[in-house]
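re: the backbone from monday

yeah here it is again, tokenized this time
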């Protein structure tokens, strides 16, 4: 059975007034439009055309949450736990009310994520940069960065130590000085770091005085082109800066924040789940051949495929409850009944578990989500 899905964009402050509107071919919104959720998450289950919400169909057991994400300004720096860490945290906080401000864990699940760029440029901070490279970057910031350079030049877990220090509240004077030096360096010839410093300077304007601005200097600045993706595993520090994308994640709401937010930051808990191993996060690129791009991830919760339609039908095999989300053109989907069902751009069709083959037709772009294999 196929069911038409839609939802109202969530109005988080970092959302764009134009990105989703442009995608759907309508006038810009007068309020931020940050995310559209296609899932059965109790926080905002998708609307089933003419028949309630998706959680009534699935029983709230869909293992993934599919979203359109439209960022006009940076999201908070954050990290998500492994499955074992989430279960442990959930048990430790069993005595806390769900709305208790000291609660970190909203469920017992992990939250790996994959995001695919829909805009021509999608900016993110993803993972911690190799320390030697960060020391070269900090060399452009003058004496203001000396305290941070000293910490990164010592022994042990230097990145964890530096992040804990920056977020502790005891380093605000040093944070302010480093942020000021970023503005000075951005105005000069920054060479290979020009784009990164421009991005961090923009973050500083959005979050003046926030220690997360300096945490951002420790992270890889990753720019995706349309169709490119990054997978964010558990423990990986990240933040989206700007752009439009399709995001899929495990069905969880577990977030530990590390800056760029007025919300509570539990520094010890953040550091307990943060993987401080530095390294480059690989970019997953669209297929150069064929209509279907697969974005391989090593989690069982979800799989995502991008299908480019140029007139000929494309048949996609699915196992378990699946979704087809249209992001360009005029497209349709059919299941076992062979009845073509148009999908409006920015909307999705849900396929129940009895559907094993989806046939996509038309010209445009569709993302097919399903449980992982």
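seq for it, each position gets an aa:
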């Amino acid at each position: 059975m196929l069911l038409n899905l839609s939802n109202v964009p969530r109005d988080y402050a970092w959302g764009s007034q134009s990105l989703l509107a442009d995608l759907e071919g309508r006038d810009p919104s007068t309020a931020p439009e940050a995310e559209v959720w296609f899932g059965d998450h109790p926080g905002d289950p998708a609307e089933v055309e003419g028949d309630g919400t998706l959680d009534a169909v699935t029983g709230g057991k869909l293992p993934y949450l599919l979203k359109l994400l439209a960022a006009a300004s940076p999201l908070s720096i954050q990290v998500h736990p492994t499955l074992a860490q989430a279960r442990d945290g959930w048990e430790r906080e069993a005595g806390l009310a769900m709305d208790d401000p000291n609660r970190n864990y909203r469920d017992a699940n992990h939250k790996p994520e994959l995001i695919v760029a829909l805009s021509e440029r999608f900016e993110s901070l993803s993972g911690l940069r190799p320390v030697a490279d960060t020391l070269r970057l900090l060399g452009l910031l003058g004496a203001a960065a000396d305290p941070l350079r000293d910490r990164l030049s010592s022994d042990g877990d230097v990145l964890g130590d530096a992040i804990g220090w920056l977020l502790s509240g005891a380093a605000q004077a040093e944070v302010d000085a480093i942020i000021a030096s970023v503005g000075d360096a951005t105005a000069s010839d920054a060479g290979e770091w020009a784009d990164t410093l421009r991005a961090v300077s923009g973050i500083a304007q959005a979050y003046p005085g926030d220690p997360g601005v300096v945490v951002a200097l420790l992270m890889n600045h990753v720019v995706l082109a349309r169709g490119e993706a990054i997978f964010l595993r558990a423990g990986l520090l990240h933040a989206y800066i700007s752009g439009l994308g399709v995001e899929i994640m495990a069905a969880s709401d577990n977030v530990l924040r590390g800056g760029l937010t007025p919300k509570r930051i539990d520094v010890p808990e953040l550091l307990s789940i943060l993987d401080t191993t530095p390294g480059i996060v690989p970019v997953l690129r669209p297929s150069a051949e064929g209509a279907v791009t697969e974005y391989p991830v090593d989690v069982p919760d979800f799989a995502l495929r991008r299908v480019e339609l140029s007139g000929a039908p494309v048949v996609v095999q699915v196992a378990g409850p699946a979704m087809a989300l249209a992001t360009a053109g005029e497209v349709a989907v059919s299941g076992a009944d062979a009845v073509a069902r148009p999908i409006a751009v920015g909307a999705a069709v849900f396929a129940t578990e009895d559907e094993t083959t989806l046939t996509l037709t038309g010209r445009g772009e569709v993302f097919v989500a399903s449980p992982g294999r």
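The mean pLDDT is 95. The first strand starts at residue 2 and ends at 6.
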